[in-house]
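Subject: Interface between my chains keeps coming out wrong

I've been trying for a while to get a sensible model of this assembly. When I model each chain on its own everything looks fine, but I need the whole thing in one frame so I can look at the contacts. Pasting all components below, labels as-is. Any help appreciated, I'm running out of ideas.
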Amino acid sequence: MDLVLQLLFTGIGIGAVYALVALGFVLIFRATNVVNFAQGEFSMVAAFIMVVFAVDLGWPYWLSFIVSLGGMALLGALFNLGVYYPLRNRSFLPVIIATIGASIFLANSVLALYGPQPQVLQGWFDTPGIQLGPVYLDSQYLLIIAVTIVLVAFQYWFFEHTLLGKKLQATSQDKEMASLIGIPVSAMIMLTFVYSALLGGIAGILVAPVLFVSIQMGATIALKAFAATIIGGFGDVAGAIIGGLALGVIETFGAAYISVPYKDGFAFLVLVAFLIFRPQGLFGERVAEKA
Amino acid sequence: MSVAAEAAKPAPARRFPGPLAGALAYMAAAALAMLAAVFLPFDDYILHILVETATYAIAVFGLTVVLGLCGQINLAQAAFFGLGAYAVGLGTADLHLSFWLALAGGAGIALVMGACLGMSTLRLGGHYLAMVTISFQQILTLVMINWIAVTHGPDGVGNIARPAWFSSGHGYLGLCIAALALVGYLVWRLPETKLGRSMRAVRDNELAASVSGIDVYRIKVAAFALCALLGGIGGGLFAGGFSYVSPDQFSFAESIVFLTMALLGGVASPIGALIGTALLIVLPETLRFLKSVPGLYLAIYGLAVILIIRFMPDGIWGFVQVYLRRFMKPAAFARSAPELVLVPAKLEAESALEVEGLSKHFGGLKAVDSVSFSVRRGSVHALIGPNGSGKTTTLNVLSGLYTPTAGKIALDGHDVTALPPHARTAVGLGRTFQNIRLFRSMSALDNVVIGAERPGHDLGQIHAALVDQARAALAFVGLEGRARDPITSFSYGHQRLIEIARALAGNPTLLLLDEPAAGLNSTEKVELRGLLKRIAGEGLTILIIDHDMALVSDVAEHITVLNFGRRIADGVAGEVLRNPDVIAAYLGAEPDVAHRA
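Reply #2:
Try treating it as a single job with all components included. I did that and got this:
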């Protein structure tokens, strides 16, 4: 029982990271109808920027964090200008191929610049964690869960209660209509990319102390986050969060009770099971075909 | 670049002297390439590069099929390549099977895996397929590394045997070139076969493909399985060529390399695949200094993918083809188009279409609410109603794009209520769309040929008969003279006529026309009216939806009127148009206004 609680805590902690990246997926998908296959690389690049500034250059953690987020905002903007925007009027296939190209480009550029050695990034707090009854609460996992809650709350407030948020929603629902009523659609899409790069970046920095900071972490996180969006229901914000948490828990239990080397395979199995038996996910509506 | 691979290449380009001459030229070139492989004094290094090029190219041909022809993505080609390679490796080294048996086994495993993966995902959109193939790729890599008892783990498999007759480097290269030439020929000819045409149709427009009688899901699964099969064959030959394989040779990065090869050369043609493969194998060999920095290569590949997609979407071969086309005019047809014969279907039922209590609800909205009508054989029946009355929804339910909430549809006496669109087409339904849906990358003729080869329309599957039927249908709408022109070169009005010709070529029992006059100018409308009368004159049953009352009252004998999803009138044209409820519905006067809420 103690082990179960411990695993549950760890699973939710890691699941919160998937949820954050999944949220970035969903936002871009809703704004552009494109799945950004480079979403995981945002996490990876942010984690490496942290390693460069906080570890290699010895800057304060908070300052490195700000620099890293600045870098992410810039990367999101460049990504939009270089990858999505020129192809915005083409069908989805060229666009996803281009985002896959971008993913390969980002991961291997970091590899070429930094080398293949996985790096270690310290957690935010000096205290490793606290013992609460039978469960040991790792401080970094607590931080991840807290930040996820804050970001989800912020996002809810932002989209439902600010004019900018409503403009973003309008853009994602009907670009033509949005531009007809004077919403600068290109700027809104730019903002979406910047914001989801930031989300991905925060997720990467948060998870870095738990995992190693490696070139592969982007692809791994992206795969899990994508599986999370399918479990939750594609394009659904609440679904992405719950799907992310569920996947984190499933994976942690799978690793503990079934097999550690195949830990990353559980996401795939869950993904395929959902695709076969419930492709609309937990919360998604069945998509009607358009004639 | 290699003499051998170059020699095999130019042949497929010359396709217009006729398929037979083309095939002969191709065989001669392939034989020459094989002779060169066996007898030219290549050293081991060159032999290795050539074997690598030939085996990779076979796998890239798979992407030509799935991505180029069918428009579906596969980011796990290295996994299928790896399945073939491990089957040959483990089969010959550990199980001491014959090379051929191991190769066939590997190809079979890849085929089955590809089919299963495709079946689980291809009903959904392309995003899912991309992610699922990436996942599959990563799972397979995990298995190769961790299932040490069987796969030897990260150490890889050594001592892989070659078949007895091809044990020398030159002999084995000859075998690979032969396989390359054979597979290349099949992939090159594929677009002109029924399967290949169906794949192109699915790529261009899934909805139009399904109402043309193509089982979209099955075609996608077939394309995906075929791609996996070619990956398995290529991988099996690769393993024999190098006698040692390890998991890192079949990683996700390699799948991206395969994709880059296909995109760079041109994804639409096996020639492009060969060009792309050869370039991306030879270039890294000549630019070895780049390999000293890990990651640099793949970073460049990633960048190349983005740039190719943006600036050269048809790849190198697509770019070259634009120039080649200028010198190659398609041969003229040997004889003039035959007369279109529209045989009214076997008289099984009095009404061509019987609709009973048909309903379609979207949540609380009753778009169609227990509508019944019947279309008499040989008549022109119109379904009219104001905007939002449920006409197009009815049509979409009739052609199977929506499943009805309730009701029954009988086509020519057959209950088709539960059938998917392509199966209804097989029973004898033909339709056009309000917003024209043609296969935009094809010629007018190819579009109409797809209509002609619908299931249930037996022309003996002889290509000449299909082409004759398609030309006859095009001649019927007055566009036979431009049969070989690409769709994009036709005006909007002509595209609508081609869409009608596509439906006519299948000799349907019932032709559904969804607002055929929409977007036409007045001259075109007059022509359309004449065309519809001629079709009706041939005895074909038509159900037409349109807003143009002049057109409807001129061609329709029988009219059903819908308003707010309900039938408000049904009968002989003249009477219905004088019906006060109908006039009220159109002019927006009382009693119906109260319904709107």
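Reply #3:
Confirming on my end. Chain B touches chain A through 51 residues (CB under 8 Å).
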